Amino acid sequence: MAGALRSRIDGWFLSRRAPSDTLELTQRNVYIVPTRAGWTLAATLLVLLIASINYQLNLGYLLTFLLAGSVAVGMHVCHGTLRGLAMHMVAPEAHYAGAAAVFRVVLHNTRRSVRYGIGMAVRGSGQWAWTDVPAEGTSTVEIAFKPERRGLHPVPPLTAETRFPLGTFRVWTVWRPAAQMLVYPTPEAHPPPLPPGEPLTGAAAVSAAQRSHSAGEYDGVRAYRRGDPLKLVVWKKAARAQAAGSEDLVSRDTQQTQREELWLDAQHTGVAATETEARISRLCAWVLMADRLGVDYGVRVAGRVVKPSQGEAHRRACLEALALC
What we know:
alpha+beta, about 325 residues
């Protein structure tokens, strides 16, 4: 019951924060509470005060009020360390599900003094990243987050806090960024070889025939097939793939034989239709494999079609289609 009540209060608190990729900390959104050390110090000061009154100790009064004054100054300094700071969320890059995602927050300090000991973390994670923000400068904090499933996810709420200088008070704030993070599916660890190409039909076949001038004229590469002559293997690409830890080979493709195209189709993955995530995982691995080989490829999954092409932008488009299907 206590956990459910805490969850409802937390949800109500977060609902009052409008999502935004920038946040300026003011008196209205910065909070301060004593830490455990602060409560212990308060109890100690109370005991010292009672003892000084009871035994009429002038030095006891001096020590008690000296410590109390130091705590009051520390409270003011601690609150001022966070107040006036501006935070900006850098657009997060796409990551793969199950792997640690890192997004960056830039802290802007317009004050003429350094702000020390500022920490940031995903709310409730306990994984803090600490930094000092220079005077009239900026500092970038990298925060780790591990998305468990593919898709488009909002950046989770963040917490910023400081306990500088005495550690007796905790000054904190909560921030709801408006940015969203795209999470690609987890690629299969040991996928099978790329599927065979599909015959070109219609206008694509006519266009390929018109490009054909003479047998033996090369027009791109394709995945290596058993029985291909060794003279057609692109050894430079093979060497680069081996340096990257892959043993995939590619062969030259002639215009005369360029009559088919590589489609990565969810229906032809060899995985049961009920195992949707396994299908997506295999397609993801095939996309990375085809991109590494430098061949033209397209993707068909859940009604989404990405026409065959290659390059960094095409790879991202295919992975996005897999993440959002």
